[in-house]
Amino acid sequence: MKRIVGSPGTWSGMVLRLSQCFFAAASSLAMCSAFGFSNYSAYFYMNLVLILQLLWSLYLACQDIFSLRNNRDLHAPDFLLFFVIIDWVMAILMFSAFCASASVTIFFMKDMNFCAEYRRLDCNQFTLSVTLAFFTWLLQAASSFSGFWLLVSFF
Amino acid sequence: MKRIVGSPGTWSGMVLRLSQCFFAAASSLAMCSAFGFSNYSAYFYMNLVLILQLLWSLYLACQDIFSLRNNRDLHAPDFLLFFVIIDWVMAILMFSAFCASASVTIFFMKDMNFCAEYRRLDCNQFTLSVTLAFFTWLLQAASSFSGFWLLVSFF
């Protein structure tokens, strides 16, 4: 089994997946605690993607833990191809959700100055959630690249 | 010289680049003709990225035409690596700009219903511009993948 940092079935891979779970959960919690976030399509979409991300990362973290305990090899090409495709789709969804929410937050804070005018708008929570979503995306991109690199090294 | 569809120095590559120029220019024009677009960060950012995209695609279309007329090989690995890196950066910038603008347009049209309330807001122009930017991104992604595939085939 090749040892590429962050690939499935390695310690670094497991740490990456657990960090994704942590950041996705924290970002989703920050969003849910903001008043009326579901009125805005961009925030609703980001929350949905974050929950999907959390479930996917949790599933892969469990796979990694199982593989590390039982010394099972997760690097079969078919298995890996499936992982890498879903990983890339998740990374693209996460990036689009982050961009959409960031632009709406900038619109509230800078363009329209709604945050100062409407006190009920939880701009701090929105900003916190978007920042955490950015870190989730960075970690997801790292996992996707590492899986892709491993797949390329088979050919 | 390997003939991969859409790669530099081929007819299909040139058609892809010229289509990118056309869609980027059309999207930018649609945006500029909308009243007060530069008040919104997302639209301003998208317009900036569209102008960058137009310049980059125009430069590469000229390279393709020059290469086709003079039978020059554009597939030297160093030259290709430079192309592919900038192509990927442009594709990521274009995607982020499209997502940001689309989310602000959805916010205007669906979430807040501003388009029906404020007649001066050129929602049709914004929608047209965002749609054209989406096609620009699709074409840019096709070019990036084709260049990347060519680069991988060297190793």
UniProtKB/TrEMBL annotation, chains A, B:
Cell membrane as UniProt keyword: yes
Gene: LOC123089608
Entry GO CC: membrane; plasma membrane
Key words of the record: Cell membrane, Membrane, Transmembrane, Transmembrane helix
Organism domain of life: Eukaryota
Protein localization: Cell membrane
Topology of this chain in the membrane: Multi-pass membrane protein
Protein family according to the UniProt entry: Belongs to the Casparian strip membrane proteins (CASP) family.
Location of the Casparian strip membrane protein domain: 7-139
Signal peptide range: none
Statement: the UniProt record of this protein carries the keyword Transmembrane: yes
Taxonomic lineage: Eukaryota, Viridiplantae, Streptophyta, Embryophyta, Tracheophyta
Segments traversing the membrane: 44-67, 79-108, 128-152
Pfam families, sorted: CASP_dom
UniProt name for this protein: CASP-like protein
Quaternary structure and partners: Homodimer and heterodimers.
